[in-house]
Amino acid sequence: MERRCVTLSSNLKYALEKNKTKILIGTSVVLLAGAGLGSYFLFMDDKGEVGEVQELENKLAEYIVSGSEEGMLNIINTETGEFKDSLTLPSGKYIYTANNGYDTLYTYDGKQVHAYDVQNGKFSDKGVITEIKVEGAVDFKTDGKNIAILSHDRETLTYIYQVDGKTKTEVIQLQDKVDDFHVSKETLTYSTSTNIHSFSPTSKKTIDLGDETGVITTFQDRILIHNDFGSGLDNNILVSLNHKDLEILELTETKSAETNLLSMDEGDQVFYTTQYVPSTEPYHLLDEWRIQDGKIVKEEDITIKIPVKKDGIAYNNETTMASKGYLYTHFQDRVQIFDIRSHDLLKEVSVDEYFAMPVLAD
Questions:
Q1: Which of 42, 90, 195, 211 gives the lowest tally of CB atoms within 10 Å of its CB?
Q2: Can you give the pLDDT at residue 62?
Q3: What is the mean pLDDT of the chain?
Q4: First to last CA, the chain
Q5: Which among 11, 10, 12 is positioned nearest to 228, based on CA atoms?
Q6: CA dist 191 to 99, 169, 173, 188, 272, Å?
Q7: What is the C-alpha to C-alpha distance for residues 132 and 171, in angstroms, rounded to an integer?
Q8: Between the CA of residue 167 and those of 160, 161, 223, 238, what are the distances in Å?
Q9: What pLDDT was estimated at residue 56?
Q10: Do the beta carbons of residue 245 and residue 206 sit within 8 Å?
Q11: What ranges in the chain are assigned the alpha helix state H?
């Protein structure tokens, strides 16, 4: 699609502010609001020297869950690489997802969505949370009660939700492919083309953000998205919204068209974006953000650099999640764990190439 161009910084903010009052709920809209400043973190200069680190809670995931397409599940100790528990699911082809807190695994075989808590290195069977047959399912998301299943070349969403103790199903057939989708607070939020949509038992809303939204997630009780607005002039935006009415709470620029918003535990205090920086010695730039006094803020003066290696690892929301001081990147048959504070490769854990997730139990 043709990318939209705007004049950066103050002109971008002016355009967003100017169009804020034009937002139309339920149809499409023009644009947004706000901007944000800085926060903190770790510095590595061009020589790889580490500067001052401010305190945050740093906690390494004790376990990694690995799963094959055929339904072989393992819990692996991150320190030792030892298998702590294993589970073989009934014969079938499976897709997997984690809950927003990364301590429950959900499986889907085209017929049933099943939940497994992961506690103390053991699978705890929580049973079937819904039974529904969807042909050609490629992904699914759930908040533990409501489930959205993406199928038919990413052009159909099947949403199974609860109303007054009864299970209902909404099949949403689209003309555009779904770029991303998310389930939280009994609401399905999804993006197509330049639009963001929400569906809940009581309302449907759509807004137009002017460009594609590649990542939708939850952070500290609000929807957080990454949108390509401004990419024609080397910019993207981060936007926070209310779940049900898509009210825009805050917006800020990333100042790069190559930004990736990484997955996180929804209860974390900070979140991260990465971008590839081409130079004589290319690197991935890791930025830390938080929501402070309602605003999305970033540390402007300190940077974290991850040198580009020949292994071809990409850091994005499909491969990488960051939480409590560590990056977990699933690449081929291993999970690489980086200590953000020191930028050391802490561990490599052997996993199945098909699926892996860190377990972030409290």
A1: 90
A2: 96
A3: 85
A4: 43
A5: 12
A6: 20, 19, 13, 10, 21
A7: 12
A8: 7, 6, 24, 34
A9: 64
A10: no
A11: 10-19
